[in-house]
Amino acid sequence: MSMFKDIITNRFTVLVCRILIGALFIYASISKIFHPVSFAATFINYNVAPEFIAPLVAVFIPWFEFVFGCMLVLGFRTQTAALGIALLLMGFLVGIGINLARGVQMDCGCFEFFGWRENLDIFTFLRDIVFIALTIPPLISEKHFLAVDVLFRNEGR
Length: 157
Known about the structure:
By secondary structure, the protein is mostly helical. The protein has one domain (2-142). It contains seven helices and no strands. α2 runs antiparallel to α4 (54-74) and α5 packs antiparallel against α6 (122-140). The longest helix has 25 residues, at 78-102. The chain is globular. The two termini are 26 Å apart.
């Protein structure tokens, strides 16, 4: 177990996971930020929450994705950002899982920037599990490399 923990808390592992997940969430947020009506419609199609909250979801979720993504890339409040992204992903997994169980055929609404559209399927579900796994190294690591956090603590130098 110690060797596994050493690998996932290695500063380079943490850095790669931080930048990969952070950049991915920045990318995912862009289209949603600029097209909130489209994102609200996608949210409504998931049919997992009351329609009246769709405008709030369409405005706030993309900005959470963007801010947490930037925080991870910069290494600012890294554990908070990793936790925020993990929680978002868990929420996405619930919506995806419910709709897969229902047999619903629909657009995921995950990454629509540059016209990339994908259908909701088991791959989407498994991919989000992998994304959650990639939040674990920055979430559990106490030391961060090439991170703004280092400026506020005497670590990682």
